[in-house]
Design brief:
nine-stranded mixed β-sheet; binds adenosine-5'-triphosphate; binds magnesium ion; alpha/beta; two-stranded antiparallel ribbon; single chain; 15 helices
Length: 325
Amino acid sequence: MGAEQLEYYKAKYRTLEDLPSVGPATASKLREIGFRTVEAIATAAVSELVTAGIGEATAAKIIAAARKSMAITFVRGDELVKLRSNMHRLTTGCASLDNLLGGGVESQSITELYGEFGTGKSQICQQLCVTVQLPFEQGGLEAGALYIDTENTFRPERITQMAPRFGLDPEEVLRRIIFAEAYTSNHQMMLLENSDEVIKENNIHLIVIDSVMSHFRSEYLGREMLAPRQQQLNKHLHKLIRLARAFNVAAVITNQVMAQPDVFFAKVVRPVGGHILAHTSHSRIFLRKGRNNVRIAKLTVSPFLPEGEAPIRITERGIESDEDV
Ligand SMILES: Nc1ncnc2c1ncn2[C@@H]1O[C@H](COP(=O)(O)OP(=O)(O)OP(=O)(O)O)[C@@H](O)[C@H]1O
Ligand SMILES: [Mg+2]
């Protein structure tokens, strides 16, 4: 499909009601189950729309129409390079961490920060909420952030401390962070499922879920709950990926670790969440405490970068390294 045609359909299908067979009643049902924008419909599955009481054939037709307004298509490798150029890298504001990540965290993908308590996961997330607002030439995305907090650790005062270092006005920065506390795993899922309008309206290009697993972990106890837990988690993470792709968003999630029970001599830990989380996170960073209050970030999984380590410090000003001036 040519660019002109794409523009044509983008202009034609602006809201749900513009799509074929979607009247006001269907549109409101779709919104109720979390599909609030044409982009969300474009990346939906037929079975999901069926739950809004839409017949399969109609659902397929609606999705096909929505897809015409989005560049979802097969591409050649050389074209992929161009598409990827849409991908942005968001600076962490910490030079050593940026180097480790090849420049920063990527949009259109999920970056997972995992490690023990107090290793700096939430600090990095909060700093990203500041740096995402920076101009492009300073490594930012000139955009806002959406922060889903499950552990009540987000602190506006911390943002206020971090902002001046980047030359930003704290009040202004706080205005562009959309915050939501998730009380249960269901609530957490619902927040994300209903976020596409918020993302669009507030020009959000960073979504943080801090932490992604804590509710799932505490609510689904016992072996027999593992399968349903993983199923829900899978759904949640796929929603996150779809949002990241549809809106060119950098998704950053944090995760706790648990000790590997079968390893005796070395202290080996792995992130919780099992295979599903492992396979949906595109980059994984392990954080641990080093000497003299230094934290060590280690890139353990990346689609294209070599493994490596970076020392970082948590100070009053935020996350820093020796390379930062
Ligand atoms: N204003 C500050 N100045 C210096 N260091 C700070 C400041 N605020 C927080 N820290 C440091 O950050 C650490 C907490 O980091 P953070 O909250 O990111 O941990 P976490 O990895 O998210 O842990 P958890 O698993 O408990 O969520 C504290 O232990 C403290 O050393
Ligand atoms: Mg934390």
